[in-house]
User: Fold these one by one.
Assistant:
Number 1:
Amino acid sequence: MASTYKRLKQILFGRPLASDRLEHERLSKKTGLAVLSSDNISSVAYATEQTLIVLAVLGTAALSYVVPISGVIVGLVILVALSYRQTIFAYPQGGGSYTVAKDNLGTTYGLIAAASLLTDYILTVSVSISSGIAAITSAYPSLIPHAVSLGLASIVLLMAINLRGVRESGMAFSVPTYVFIVMMLALIVTGVYRGLLGQEAAPTVGPVRIDPVSRAHVGISTPVGFALMFLILRGFAEGCVAITGTEAISNGVGAFKSPSAKNAATTLGWMAAILATFFMGTSYLARHYAVMPTPNETILSQLGHHIFGNGALYLALQYSTFAILVLAANTAFADFPRLSSILSGDRYMPRQFAARGDRLAFSNGIVALAILAMILVWLFHGDTSSLIPLYAIGVFICFTLSQAGMVVHWWRSKDPGWRWRATLNGIGAIATALIFVVQVLTKFTEGAWVVVLIIPSIILLLKKIHKHYESFAAEVKFTGHAPLMFLHHTVVVPVNGITKPVAGALVYATTISEDVRAIFVDVDQGAGARLSAEWSAWDIGVDLVVVPSPYRSVLKPIADYVKKLTDSGDAELVTIVVPEIVPRKWWEHLLHNKTALYIRTAFLFRRNVVVTAVPYHLGHSARLADLMSHDEMLDEEIEAGAGEALLVEAGHK
Amino acid sequence: MASTYKRLKQILFGRPLASDRLEHERLSKKTGLAVLSSDNISSVAYATEQTLIVLAVLGTAALSYVVPISGVIVGLVILVALSYRQTIFAYPQGGGSYTVAKDNLGTTYGLIAAASLLTDYILTVSVSISSGIAAITSAYPSLIPHAVSLGLASIVLLMAINLRGVRESGMAFSVPTYVFIVMMLALIVTGVYRGLLGQEAAPTVGPVRIDPVSRAHVGISTPVGFALMFLILRGFAEGCVAITGTEAISNGVGAFKSPSAKNAATTLGWMAAILATFFMGTSYLARHYAVMPTPNETILSQLGHHIFGNGALYLALQYSTFAILVLAANTAFADFPRLSSILSGDRYMPRQFAARGDRLAFSNGIVALAILAMILVWLFHGDTSSLIPLYAIGVFICFTLSQAGMVVHWWRSKDPGWRWRATLNGIGAIATALIFVVQVLTKFTEGAWVVVLIIPSIILLLKKIHKHYESFAAEVKFTGHAPLMFLHHTVVVPVNGITKPVAGALVYATTISEDVRAIFVDVDQGAGARLSAEWSAWDIGVDLVVVPSPYRSVLKPIADYVKKLTDSGDAELVTIVVPEIVPRKWWEHLLHNKTALYIRTAFLFRRNVVVTAVPYHLGHSARLADLMSHDEMLDEEIEAGAGEALLVEAGHK
């Protein structure tokens, strides 16, 4: 059965890889763009749409705000990318916000960054998968009722791919990214070209379908003054989701081929350029074609219909949108386990997250991420617009901390050009801090409060775990030198009769100590006397102690006996050797009392008491017990041509 | 926490009772009637009703058949009671059908009886509780939607009472039985008296409300000829449910005070007389008042309304009906665990069912019965008429086997009067066998087929369990005499550094063997070399073996090393001593790898390998490890005034 499991595991996840193959798993620039930029680039699938959903109460007037808002966001994209370019060169081993904030601002800021990042990685998976499924259901509306199941299935698939290891997923995922880039370019170029020719202006100028939920939130009347400003700010806050994922490349510098910093910086530049183009293009086209959000079809799908019609090009756009969003989720599958591993190494997360699995992937982190993201998709019914208000908040905390950390870094290092470098990172920090404030203020009641509660909770948890490991390390630290031994080691063997499992336990007991006592708990008056008689006849040199148990408990009399031994000072150390039946079939377990297990549990907290189970394998020849049967065994051993010299008769008899 | 659990357990179930209090828990005749007859007597609450439900398609004509059918059944009640009276004297220790059938007809028939009884005890609980709840919902129709929950809660309560032990439940349950007997007598006497005076004849002779379900089964037209005969036979079969429970007293003879046989026989006579009176009376009154079954009110409740009105007398009838039906379920709570214990003693059921718990009750059997009965109530939505077709079939198998066994018993014993005794039991056997055939034939499609499938399955299961225990007993049987010892016992201690838990494990290892090897699995190249250097400096006389693990597995290199040791013949027996961290709080378990557990599991099936976990208690002074630190410890030991003589420095240094 164990080997069936092993084979199944290998079919699903591939054969184990040796540690020295780690280097070969690294990313080229092209593959790096596919694996690490998808989170960032794919946000064009929902960023414009989220802005429009907020502004929908303005009717078609919304369309006139979307382009300027997008322009401001693109400016921020470039600013943030320039900031992170500096981080890449300063931290060529991979400068995640956690590392940068911890190194430069101290542990607490590092943990704030870590908690924010963990939250956002989970949300990246949930949001990207939900949005990806929306791309599919836009093309096939009959799938809408199955959206949640499809989302959960996609996450399971991603988990399986990532458990196989990073390079293979990089290769498998390169094609769809580049197809998406090509399709988006085709969409934008065709759309803008037609727009410049003046063909196909906004087809309808009448009432536009408006997401009823958004309208209900703000009220029916068109807002003016402060209300309008708030609305535009909220639209801007939602659109800023486009900037998420910019940090992915600087977190993953270490995964690039050498020279990794240079390769990562180039990839970052490409990523920012692509995102800026696509985001501006989408917003421009949405205005040009007067496309407004609807619950059942995405903005990108509507643009696809307007520009490509209903044919193969439209479907290629939708499939590649789905594919790049799956890739975006995959970015989190690379980053979450890596951050968990770093945190685990720093003793802030359970050590199970530290180690790479058979396939060099951080298996536990991958599984944990998948489970948490699936819970979110399930809770929010796979609805992107419900998840978005929670998203991006953590990202901007990290951006701010990371840039602020860089300012300190330059200040301390005094590297050439440190003044303008610090200024650039400083502007980045201020800008992202402002966006964070706008995010929290405008989206607080929409769900942002959840994040505001969760991040501090995670920080407390990380600190609590750290405290445990620290005190553990201090406690187990060994300072002494001279080893000492117990002079008197008593072994107690609970017996229920004269059987082979008992004989096996007695052989083991006499092997590890001179002082062995068999103990029989007499729940049924009379049985003890009978066994005593048999025991004397057996005459193996081990005394049998019969203890009565009027209350029919088996454990308590043994515990009392052992306590008497240790309290009286008769025994410095007591080992309880319990015969344990190991059945052949699972159901046979139900037919045997789990005495060994109960005794282990009962004595787990008793000092200087060790419980040892000596297994007796049903249906196999059990060596330990057979040793007791001298005459038969010795012949067998001699025949086997080995071992007879290893057997001596015990001196008891 | 353990003591909180213990206290809670004592509050719920009382303090443990010593085994020698068993005798005092026995039943007087009055209490015996309350505890053991309730199953039988309480069947008047549904027996007449089930007959009428079947006959309902005949309209009010049904009423003319119910009295003669009941008459025949009462004749059978007396016959079966007389048969069982003989069993009581022949088996004064408690002659359940299983014992009688096994002793006289052989094991297979014994097992058929046992399987039938187990099935019927479960159904007794389900049917009685469902019917009891129907008595309550008849009085309070607003409770109808909660019927299932009320049923489940009643079973849980019964379980708790029975876990407290048998005498207390007998006392607590006596009053309601006698109240029911008084209320039923009052109902019958008042009803018959008025009937004889000619007052209050059938108030409505027009169309009578008919259970739509029964009608649907048979068709709308009034049956004649063969169909009518079949219907009457089915009505008779359903009415025979009144006879169930007759065996309870002869099963429980052993629970009576001395002279137990005589007391039991007297009680059996009273029980039969009471049942016969009540059953005949109910059927007569149903005809007299032309009462027909309805889904929401029981026959007994309708009679109560007719005869007592809506006042206190009516409510007393309903409550006492509920109470005696709960008692009926309680009979099964006495018998099922007792039979399980007997079967367990004969190795046909898991041995966990054999032993009495703290309160002298067979705890496991009680819990198992409660769970199975609750599943049935839940599956059948607490509907008595759906459960009844499954019921009684098993009972009549047992009646037949038990009486047939008694015929053989008399034949063999040739006791005075064996001829007429054998004849009486023979007539009983033939009568009950005929009823069994009628039951299966008339109710087969109504659910009886389920029982026909389940009983053979249970028999197979019992036989399979028996086979396992038999082969287990044969296998572990010990025949040899001279004990032998292992000459060479090697201890392997997996270490991850020089810490107190490791030191503790090493102290234990050197205590139990001369040949101790520490093993370090090197998953991260370089760590091994560092530890080797530290280890040499530590200089404790135990060699450190560093094994590389390029695939990062911790278990496999240890397994390979141990295999090499045993295969080469270097070690006859290997003990792996693993340090095990025992945290203070439950959540701390999540922060430590369960290495000890994994190693135990990995080596469970390896011959001549024993795994011992040496616990290291976080937050407590851990003696084993502290022993390694000579200077500090010795002083402490001397201060403590004891034990210093028990410590010797290991010869290694």
Number 2:
Amino acid sequence: MDHAPGYTTDKAAVLSRLKRVEGQVRGLQRMVSDDTYCIDVLTQVSAATRALESVALLLLEDHLAHCVADAARRGGPEADAKLQEAIAAISRLVKS
Amino acid sequence: MDHAPGYTTDKAAVLSRLKRVEGQVRGLQRMVSDDTYCIDVLTQVSAATRALESVALLLLEDHLAHCVADAARRGGPEADAKLQEAIAAISRLVKS
Amino acid sequence: MDHAPGYTTDKAAVLSRLKRVEGQVRGLQRMVSDDTYCIDVLTQVSAATRALESVALLLLEDHLAHCVADAARRGGPEADAKLQEAIAAISRLVKS
Amino acid sequence: MDHAPGYTTDKAAVLSRLKRVEGQVRGLQRMVSDDTYCIDVLTQVSAATRALESVALLLLEDHLAHCVADAARRGGPEADAKLQEAIAAISRLVKS
């Protein structure tokens, strides 16, 4: 089924990473509630941010490998539209 | 009490933002489970990343306003140590 | 010629942006030599960083549109290798 | 002289790093002119971006150690204004 979203293959891997990020964010709430030293909280915020970025890269890899590559093989204006859309998403990641 | 962690003042604001990030990360899990289009998932990952960065900036502001400024007023080697520690945390944020 | 580097199309645009970044970096040297206020220098460093990121996105767009899309059309192990290579480059951009 | 810009101490170090970034950006122009493979150009763009970030962190460290710390010691509304200004600059760095 070439219309299935590209990340289906790694759906379990993506969900498990997101579950882990959720755990990190709940851990951050406990740290703040317990008056943990700021710098230690900031270190954990950076770790959660990097974990989210790695989720994004995993999603992007699947998207390029499936949706964008499929569109490239079919060619035509849709191939270009898919590429522009992917570049816009990469741009948001680079700037966030 | 000048030894209280710097973020105490805005503790409620920090906790409320972290709660919101937790909601965004749970929303991301639903999107992936529901086979939402990759690019839309990526847009939400970027939003959650930016929300975490704004938590970091809020924590950092309180830390500079309290811990680092208090140490600067007392002077001596501790002032320099606090500054180095803050710069290392900022460096991790800039690179994450 | 499908072996020509992908960015050839926008070579002039890329070169003109890099020339502009070079000008920004020389401007930064003048600002520092002239003891310009730190915060104003930092604002210009952020502008130069964003300009470099936009060069990277332009290069990446051409690379995906040409090298990666060509490899996807040919298929086989090279398509996967090109994709992994592009993802590694995107990962370095997201983390820098 | 407490009015001298904070980065005066490390002015030579900042200038030498900026000179090096300028060299990297000129090297990028040569790479593009010579049709160097895109991915290799992107690797060098990431290196130049990280070099600019390290200049920013050096400037920020001096600024916090001098301007912001001096203002903290004097206290009053100026201390808060200097802190807000620094946080805004850090925010631009984190987001660029």
